[in-house]
Every structure is written in C-alpha cells, then in structure tokens.
Amino acid sequence: MATPALSSTDDIRTRAESALTRCGAQLAAYKGDALTARTPITGAALFGLRADTPADVDRAVEAAGTAFRAWRTTPAPVRGALVKRFGELLTEHKQDVADLVTIEAGKIRSEALGEVQEMIDVCDFAVGLSRQLYGRTMPSERPGHRLMETWHPLGVVGVISAFNFPVAVWAWNTAIALVCGDTVVWKPSELTPLTALACTALLDRAIAETGAPAGLGQVLLGAADVGERLVDSPLVPLVSATGSTRMGRAVGPRVAARFGRSILELGGNNAAVVTPSADLDLVVNASVFAAAGTAGQRCTTLRRLIVHEDVADTVVERLTSAYRRLPIGDPFREDTLVGPLINESSYTRMRTALDRAVEDGGTLCAGGERQLAEAAPDAHYVRPAVVRMPAQTAVVREETFAPVLYVLTYRDLDEAIRLHNDVPQGLSSGIFTADQNEAERFLAPDGADCGIVNVNIGTSGAEIGGAFGGEKETGGGRESGSDAWRSYMRRATNTVNYSGQVALAQGVNFSQ
Ligand code: UN1
C-alpha cells in the first residue's frame, strides 16, 4: 500500500494527547467549548478548550505579582537553577514539544525540533546570564563618593506570542525574565494552545522541583479580550508582544498610555541583495530556505530578493527550478520541506497578493498553486511562489505572511540599498557578495536599516546569542541574547558618600 499523503486527524489527535500527557499537561482541566485547538495538517479540529476571562487575567497577574515579591530577592544564580532545570526538561521532552509544534503550527520535523532547540539554547544563555547581570561603576566627581548602577527585577512581564513560533519566542522572554527576577503571564496565540499547555506544564515541574515560588509562570488561553486585559493591567510593567504590525499598533500606545514598557517584535519585509560577485549556489540554497522554509511564515522570512541585473535571469531560473522541486506536504514526513499554511485566510491573503503583483506587471515565475486540496480539503498547502517585479509596488512593500518571494533588479549598490530600505518594516536583511567593500557598505550606518543585517546568509534563522528585533514598523524591541536582558530589569543609579562631608555635584556651594 502506498504511504498515505497525510496523517489522519485521529492519529494526530492521539499523538497530541500522548505528547501532552508525557509533558504533564492536564488536558482534561482545559476542555471546554470556547476555543478550538486545530491542526493545519488536515485543517481539522482536535479538541475544544475553555477560555480564560478578563477576571482570570486579573487573578493570574495577582498571583504572578505575589510570586514576584518572593522571587525578586532570590539570588540571581539561584534563579538560574530554575531555568537550568527547565532547559533540561525541554531537552528530555524535545520530541514531545516538537510534535505539538508540528501539529499546531504545521512546521516540518527539522524546524519543529529547531524551535525547541532554540528554547534550550536560550535557557543555557539565561543560566550563564544569571551570574552576569552586571552594573557599571563610574568614577564620581566628588571625593569620598562612589557612583554605580544596580539592576533590579522589574515585576510581572506580560508575554503575547504568535502562532508561527508558538513556544521559542515565549522561551526567549521567559528564560531571560526569570533570571532577571521577573515573573511571567503568557497569552499564547489562540491557534497554538496545546503547545503552550505542554511548555507551561514543563515549567511548572521545574518550579516545583527547584522549590521556586509557584505562580512564577502563568498561561492564559483566550482571544483578544484576554490579551487586552493583560496589556492594560497597571500591575504589568513590561509587555513583550510578537505579532503583526496591526497588533503592535494596538498594544504599543495602550502600554505607553499607562507608562508601561513594551518590547514589540512585529512585521518584517526582509530583503537580501544579490551582487554580481555572489556565489550563486549559496544564494539559491540560502534563499530557498529563507523564503519557502516554514511555508514563508517567519517574521524573518525572505520576502524580497534585490538582484543585480547581470545575474537576475540566472538567479530567477535557478530559484524557479528549485521551487518546482520543493517537496510539499505532511510536515511529519521526513522528506517534506514545506508544510501547510496556518489557515484559509492565510491562503486567501497569499492569492490576493499574487493577483495584485501580477496586476502591477509582475511575472509569476513559479508556484502559487494550492496543493493536496483533494486529500485535505480543509487544509491549505501551497507551492511557494517566485514573482519577478518591474518595481517595488505597494504589494511588495507590505508583509504577506506566506511564501511569496518578489525578485527586483538593480544596477548599482546605492540603488539596491535604497530599494532595500524603502519599506515600512525593518527586521532582517542580507547581502550576498564576495566583495568586502560591498559587504561593509551594506553594514555601514547608511547601509541596511534593519535590526539584523547578514552577509552571505539569508534573513531567517538567527541564533539566540544576538539581540533579536528590528526597526521602524517592526517595533524597535530587542529580545533574546546580547544585552536584551536590560529591558527586563530596572536600573538604579546609586551614589554613596563615605566622606563624612556634604559635597555637591557640579561644584555647587550651598554652605551657610
Ligand atoms: C519569528 O518568526 O517570530 O530568526 C521569530 C529566526 C528565528 C526566530 C523567528 N530564530 O528566524
């Protein structure tokens, strides 16, 4: 018998149940009819779940606030021990969590495992960080005085995450927030509740085993009303939100209106420049992963390729033939490289974007067709598309969260950089070149205007060690590595006078 094209919904449901059970999640306690956990693999419903209410948000924030008051005075390296244990549990349950990521987000195996690895990596990073929350000491201008800064825990951090990285982005925030002495209330995407329940169960286990205060990590299932209550809570000094620019526009001003802080990681419209000296094998391989991988549903997905006119025909031809060969289908199958889109509206948005691009004079060189529609009428598989555009028209300047790669051409590098930067978003970028001057020009202050700027690498798949985030409509926040931790703490500047004299700064004399 031939291998079936897709896993059956029953098999997927059973697999989800066993992964949840192994992670220690009590699915029964969450059953209800307010939300539906689905799988994009078949498009079918898996379980009905209850939703939290605004009153539940208040209770969760209060419990996280109580836990915070105990946690903030726990020594940071002891806090690190909790995150260390959590990382171990993620390692032990890597397959289980990856199964749920595949089931709910439709990621292929390698990428689902990669997502869990990203969580484990950030736990490692945070454990090291727990001994390195350094403040500076500055020379005081006054004799017998010491001037220094201390970093203190901030409070309850609200985390709002998106379906496409259902757990890694939460883990970046949570691992760092916990070692910083904060507590976390998480509102995952309503499209990926099961993955959230599994990870929360693992964190709860780490909390219980290390004797950390219960209530450090809370999860809330629900739709926009739940997120809004969290965003508006005066007891949440920091909201870290990942999602669309539209969502960020709603969240940012509301948090700012109450003088809260926000870390916004919003839309990307990431581009790579391909110069005439570029290694074209590298360009094609890197671009196919960056543009078609994760079915084009990463905020770092490559959406525009700005190619020098001398190599444009070759690049398009090679990309087109690679795209035609891409194995699309059940993300559980080892040979699949492109899984499903998350849902029908995602597919509709892709089709609309392609129609608009063609109206603007674009040529659809490959892809765009729906796949497996007979085997899975409720799922939305699609062949990733390459569209050659005569100009950077309105549709190209928008983020369409689907696998559409627009190819534009340029004559000189200034023009390429201009095109590159002429979009509202500013997350990730790349240049493919063997010419060091061109690479440096791209990295320079008047080069790419993004938060992530790569050389000879596509736009997606950043490591956790660097700060992650971008400029303009991407929101300006930074998460994950480097010194992103500072956003999760409050800085106190301390001046200590051990001279026994009053000495005023700036030479002010106030003696009687
Ligand atoms: C996202 O799509 O929201 O750089 C995050 C990457 C991943 C994270 C993406 N490490 O593609």
UniProtKB/TrEMBL annotation:
Positions annotated as active site in the UniProt record: E265
Domain of life: Bacteria
Enzyme class: oxidoreductase
Keyword set, alphabetical order: NAD, Oxidoreductase
EC number(s) from the headed UniProt entry: 1.2.1.3
One MF annotation (Gene Ontology) recorded for this entry: aldehyde dehydrogenase (NAD+) activity
Record SUPFAM superfamilies: ALDH-like (SSF53720)
Cited CDD domains: ALDH_F7_AASADH (cd07130)
Domain Aldehyde dehydrogenase: 35-491
Similarity comment: Belongs to the aldehyde dehydrogenase family.
UniProt xrefs under PANTHER family: ALPHA-AMINOADIPIC SEMIALDEHYDE DEHYDROGENASE
Subunit-structure text: Homotetramer.
Name of the protein in question: aldehyde dehydrogenase (NAD(+))
